Recover the amino acids of this structure.
């Protein structure tokens, strides 16, 4: 099976559902080989990078040999290598032919693409990120604690609720976007997804039929798959933080996605599969 990504690849919702909706978490995912074809890609947003991690690693966990065909655009290829995508995949036996691509030291990369699977690991990464931010001159220093706290909250959610066979992955970077300077923080897993997590709560099991409605519930206060009154405030708190001017939170889980910002909170929509859950926060710097 070959999945071709678009030339401007923002997130999994840009993919053709013909192949990308085949779920590598399923026990009957039995392709003889998986190729993720990025050769024509000229631009990738951070949420797309996280999909490029999760999908092939889930396929590998099912015993399906996986290959990442790197972009022909040298600039895009250099970015993906510098953020840590290629090495992370190669360490887990995904084939990546990145010969001739230099490792560029990116001063704006606060936390490269990193694996975690415990609460202690998440907290250590958040502390390391805060130290890296404090010693930098990137953006407004009053935002440094917020950036590290958001990463910690999203990472802890992945560890506690995802039941991911491949763990979680996250990164933090400072970007010069066309719309201005921004801190971005992304976390993704290949776990059961928000819907199945919330359905473990008997009070919610009969209220959730779709991934998109599950995401809408998950950002409400004290909604949790545990059913405990003291839980369900983490993701809600992040969502509330993102309702400030020019901030944005995107959540993509299974076949549903939701965008939250100061002016936009449309209904969650149906979209192309993200196998697990992705959360992406963007904060003006």
């Amino acid at each position: 099976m070959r999945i071709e990504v678009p030339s401007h690849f923002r997130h999994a919702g840009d993919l053709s559902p013909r192949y990308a909706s085949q779920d590598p978490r399923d026990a009957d995912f039995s392709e003889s080989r998986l190729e993720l074809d990025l050769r024509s890609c000229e631009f990738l947003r951070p949420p797309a990078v996280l999909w490029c991690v999760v999908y092939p690693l889930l396929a590998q966990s099912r015993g399906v040999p996986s290959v990442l065909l790197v972009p022909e655009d040298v600039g895009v290829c250099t970015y993906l290598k510098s953020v840590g995508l290629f090495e992370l995949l190669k360490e887990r036996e995904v084939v990546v032919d990145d010969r001739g691509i230099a490792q560029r030291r990116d001063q704006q990369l606060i936390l490269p693409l990193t694996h975690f699977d415990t609460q202690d690991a998440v907290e250590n990464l958040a502390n390391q990120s805060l130290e890296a931010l404090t010693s930098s001159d990137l953006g407004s220093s009053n935002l440094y604690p917020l950036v590290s706290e958001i990463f910690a909250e999203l990472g802890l959610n992945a560890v506690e609720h995802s039941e991911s066979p491949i763990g979680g992955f996250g990164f933090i970077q400072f970007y010069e976007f066309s719309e201005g300077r921004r801190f971005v923080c992304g976390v993704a897993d290949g776990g059961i997804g928000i819907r199945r997590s919330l359905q473990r709560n008997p009070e919610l099991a009969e209220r959730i039929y779709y991934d998109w409605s599950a995401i809408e519930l998950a950002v409400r206060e004290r909604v949790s798959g545990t059913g405990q009154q003291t839980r369900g405030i983490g993701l809600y708190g992040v969502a509330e933080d993102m309702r400030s001017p020019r901030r944005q939170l995107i959540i993509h889980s299974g076949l549903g996605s939701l965008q939250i910002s100061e002016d936009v909170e449309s209904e969650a929509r149906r979209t192309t599969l993200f196998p697990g859950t992705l959360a992406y926060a963007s904060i003006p710097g």
